[in-house]
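Today's session is about reading a structure prediction critically. Students often jump straight to the picture, but the first step is always the sequence itself: look for stretches that repeat, for charged clusters, for runs of hydrophobic residues. Only then move on to the predicted structure, which in these notes is written as discrete structure tokens rather than atom positions. Here is the chain we will use throughout the hour.
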Amino acid sequence: MANKINNSIDLHNSRFAVWKNYGEETHCLVLLYQSEWLENRFKLARSLGATWDFPDYHPHVTLSYQVPKDFDIKELEQPDFPFQLEKEILEIFTLKQ
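Below is the predicted structure for this chain, in token form.
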């Protein structure tokens, strides 16, 4: 189920990071940003029983799933445009026993 939303994210305080891909030996490039709206949505989802496989929640956009571990993020320029969230997708997830 998809819900239409209209939430503009200011990327001026964003930062790039290289993370290890969950359960794999490869790394991904992400753009981290602050979003009180997304953090509140995450808290609501958790309070309603949503599962989460990671120790913390960090709003981000994954830009690539295949970057070297030592990728130099200092070479990247900060985005100078707003990021627009347009829809939220909710999925029913059934745990396998």
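Discussion point for the tutorial: The mean pLDDT is 85.
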